[in-house]
Amino acid sequence: MTTFDFGNGPVPAHQHPNGGGWVADTATVADRAYVGPDARVYGNTRVYGKAKVSGKAKVYDNAWVLANAEVFGNAWVSGNARVFDNAQVSGDAWVFDDARVYGNAQVYGDAQVYGDAWVFDDARVYRNARVYRNAQVCSDARVCRDARVYGDARASNDAKEDMFIEMNGKRYKLVEIE
Q1: Residues spanned by the domain of 138
Q2: Which residue, 5, 15, 31, 145, has fewest beta-carbon neighbours within 10 Å?
Q3: Residue 158: left (phi > 0), alpha (psi -120 to 50), or beta?
């Protein structure tokens, strides 16, 4: 039996035939999926479709990466998080708890998405931004730097020009002040 230490002691594992990355025997990774040589997939994780986990990325716990989604760089996806469609999580980003990242969304830099938060459509969350609790970031919205979107807030950019945040049933237009 082959074992690998993912950080909590050696567990039964194997190298994925498409990429050579280490996969715990408790995880399920499709043959078409890619797990790069320095990437790690463990716990009860599922990686399906043509999903890619590469660089030094880690996908663990009960997380799922599906379809054409990509997790790369030093990114982590954990808990019951789901990353799917054409979404990307990269850099030092972390998606965890019950968070969802999907569509063509991107989470990167040192950003974190967690709780029951959703990032979807063509949204971007990056740098040191945080999206958490039940918050949603969608359309072409950008959340960056040290911004926080949380609670039941919804950040969207439906008009392709204006940015809105919805909180407590009210919609607020954001205006940039220089």
Answers
A1: 3-174
A2: 31
A3: alpha
